[in-house]
Design a protein that fits this description.
- By secondary structure, the protein is mainly alpha-helical.
- It has a domain of 47 residues.
- The protein is built from 3 helices and no strands.
């Protein structure tokens, strides 16, 4: 069998959110509700909103499963 050139499909370019003006300005004490909505939109677009919407996972006393403990440690470190 003859091998010809292999077509490699590249993923579409991801738009740079930093150049699109999505980052809300630093909160200046005015218009909190609008700033909050903009910040939530930004965090959602960056897929970071889960860190402000979910509660810390609770581990019952006496659990020594390495995977469960690692999950809680990762969550704490990411928070």
């Amino acid at each position: 069998t003859a091998s010809g050139p292999v077509a490699v499909q590249t993923p579409p370019a991801v738009p740079n959110v930093f150049t699109q003006g999505l980052i809300p300005d630093k909160f200046d004490g005015k218009g909190f509700k609008m700033w909050q909505k903009k910040m939530m939109f930004f965090l959602t677009s960056m897929k970071l909103d889960k860190f402000i919407q979910e509660d810390k996972p609770l581990m019952p006393y006496g659990i020594d499963d390495v995977h469960s403990l690692a999950t809680v440690d990762i969550w704490v470190h990411s928070d």
